[in-house]
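Please predict the structure of the following assembly.
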Amino acid sequence: NAGVTQTPKFRVLKTGQSMTLLCAQDMNHEYMYWYRQDPGMGLRLIHYSVGEGTTAKGEVPDGYNVSRLKKQNFLLGLESAAPSQTSVYFCASSYGDVAYEQYFGPGTRLTVT
Amino acid sequence: RKEVEQDPGPFNVPEGATVAFNCTYSNSASQSFFWYRQDCRKEPKLLMSVYSSGNEDGRFTAQLNRASQYISLLIRDSKLSDSATYLCVVTLDTGRRALTFGSGTRLQVQP
């Protein structure tokens, strides 16, 4: 099992460009999450999904959109990137019954210039 | 005020030492508590849950004090492989899916 994978691993964007981060999990988890991690801030939840076709806002959703068309995939979109979105983005997934045990992907390092 | 506060460290300790990390949380309605571990430039991984009665997993002991809104992690007989950042995590969500992470305490175990 690959666990949770993220694509791409690194990306540099110019202000105003758009991009989509892809997360895939092969553990048949119901729940999936997108976090960002910034120095001194800890991980902050952007959006999450409790099942295929459903999404919900987390702590810092502004400037991001998500979609979960298939159970195994969770996409994070940046429509118009800003320097404040420079961060490390982590995707995670979990079973519904043990939602606190979240399995994280290796992260995507995004720089917006 | 941050919801979850941790001393960022770093804590530099020799192998074999006992080290303790503390964490405070601001919301008294917090339901559940956990410690995650994050190695340098890697993803976080669940280390252990924290129960009111205290719990132990090998060399690791976690304690919760709800009255003081305080969580601790004790590591005995530190190993080089314990070097990592330890993240304190709480959740208000009874479904325990919306986790709030502290910014972490870095531990460096020296040979």
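The longest strand of chain A covers residues 42-51. Chain A touches chain B at residues 31, 33, 35, 40-45, 48, 50, 58-59, 90, 94, 96, 99-102, 104-107 (CB under 8 Å).
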